[in-house]
Amino acid sequence: MIIQFLSHSTCLLKIDKFYLLIDPFLSKNPIFKNNDYHKYFNNIDVIHYILVSHAHFDHVCDVEYFAKKYHSTIISNYEISMFFEKKGLITYGINYGAFINFPFGKIKYIWATHSSVFNDGTYGGNPGGFLLSTIDKKNIYFAGDTALHYDMMLLPRFVTLDLSILPIGGRYTMDYEEAIIAAELLKSNKILGVHYNTFSDIKIDNKIVKNQFLKKGIKLFLLKTGEKILI
Known about the structure:
By secondary structure, this protein is of the alpha/beta class. It is built from six helices and 14 strands. Strands 6-5-4-3-2-1-14 form a seven-stranded mixed beta sheet, with helices on one face. A seven-stranded mixed beta sheet has the order 7-8-9-10-11-12-13.
């Protein structure tokens, strides 16, 4: 599996022949100028699935654009799926519960302690994250926007995690200190940090944060825009 970090919580996953885009927030993202995010998609003909954790603008901003352009299926909770289905898009609504099988592997929708509403006030259902167990035998947890919660302790009962993607910016989500505790609950020694440095109120000091994870024996990836890691 190849994971490419684009910005904020937006990641592009390549699982075997399948492309999955998570929480696309690019066109209105202050990190990008003149829509220069397009270069990261030049060699991609199809994005097979778009995973949406919750309805906040910084996670759904470009769902409609990418779903139309790349003929993607949107996977999200029932309410978000219905919101985009009414726009004529292909969706697959899920909720908390058992693993659900897809061609790239299987997904379990995981509780997130957060909120979920579209910019127009439409209810966005219960926020969540995604536990992926993929056909290339990798197990990834994308937490979405969440505070620390004890349900994270349950995930190692289902899989041994190869990587957890956790928010670390604080204020609206866990901060990095709580993300360290989350990593311990998850028994996950490799963490990709997201949801930090995009805005002034979620700024971190990268060096300090990396060192704090290192003290606990946890590898923290803080990727630059467009940077990839192989899991």
